[in-house]
Amino acid sequence: MSLGNNDFQCRNGDKPTVKYIPKDVSGGLTQQVIAELRREPGQVLSYLWKTAIGSARFLAEAPLTNGILFYKFMRIFFTIEGGVSLLEILKLTSLIKRHAKNGILVEVGTWKGLSACCLSHVAALKKMKLWIVDTFTGLPQSGGPFHVSEGRRRGYHFEEGSYAGSYETVSENLRRLGYANNVSMVAGNVIDMPPLEFPDGQKISLAFIDVDLPESYRGAFKALARGIDKGTILVLHEGLIDDVREIATDNAFWKTLSLPPPRLVIYEHSWRMRTLMTGLIFDD
Ligand SMILES: C[S@@+](CC[C@H](N)C(=O)[O-])C[C@H]1O[C@@H](n2cnc3c(N)ncnc32)[C@H](O)[C@@H]1O
Predict the structure, then answer these.
(1) Which of 32, 57, 117, 275 is deepest in the core (most CB within 10 A)?
(2) CA triplet 15, 21, 26: central angle to 5 degrees?
(3) Separation of CA 274 and ligand 1 centre (Å)
(4) Sheet of strand 3-4, all strands in order from the earlier edge strand to the far edge
(5) Which numbered atom of ligand 1 lies nearest the CA of 208?
(6) From the CA of 18, how far away is ligand 1's center (Å)?
(7) What residue ranges do the domains of the chain occupy?
(8) What is the pLDDT of residues 224-268, one digit of tens each?
(9) Quick one: which atom of ligand 1 is closest to the CA of 82?
(10) How far, in Å, CA of 145 to CA of 10, rounded?
(11) What is the CATH number assigned to the segment(s) 3-281?
């Protein structure tokens, strides 16, 4: 994992920190945490503190059911490498428990299945089906640096083939640590995938999209369009990347999909933590 700056400029002219995500991400997470600790020890300690407080709040919300979920999440986090934080999963779980109505749960962007295993347990609790969609060969193209305008000045550069978790690895992880019975897996690149049709015309209650590249977000919106209905929530893991936000807030784009423009919710504000996670709510 290499971290560094290049000559990419922020829109306000400042030089941001650009994080280069290499092709082989595996095993690099520990180094990444160490690098972050060196660069921004205050942020890392504050994040740990917020995770402790967030975990306590999550447990207080529903001691028994959330206690069981928390235990399962901890096993998953200690076993599978992943690209989401525990605090993000806890917040996402509370959101699903509170707002997800009838319909299915979807994840686009799975890597080795960390978030998918967690979501499979939440889906089981809510008696919902979980669909997961991924190339299972990693990012389909390189891209970036992509700029984030909220908070600290930063950007991300992604490499083709990064975050490759095979279909077999994900299925095995789901069998060992998730609730595999209610999960359907779809392999393919959402950029050129025909729109997904869900059985019996079912609609999406909530979709968690974690695909890094703006073009993959555009593809995911197109692939999921037929399942989007009044009340559907799309949670974007990188929603604060400028190019992702531009697509998400482009009314003309949603019109081409015959959908009303969704309402944008920036969770960094309401959750009071550093996250790029953003909600798109179709309440019309
Ligand atoms: C950061 S990883 C996801 C991390 C995962 N949610 C976790 O819990 O660890 C990004 C994933 O998005 C997938 N992806 C990116 N672009 C895609 C596309 N166009 N079609 C399908 N999958 C894509 C990659 O294969 C990769 O598995």
Answers:
(1) 117
(2) 150
(3) 21
(4) 3-4, 17-21, 154-158, 143-148
(5) 6
(6) 20
(7) 3-281
(8) 999 999 999 999 999 999 999 999 999 999 999 999 999 999 998
(9) 9
(10) 10
(11) 3.40.50.150
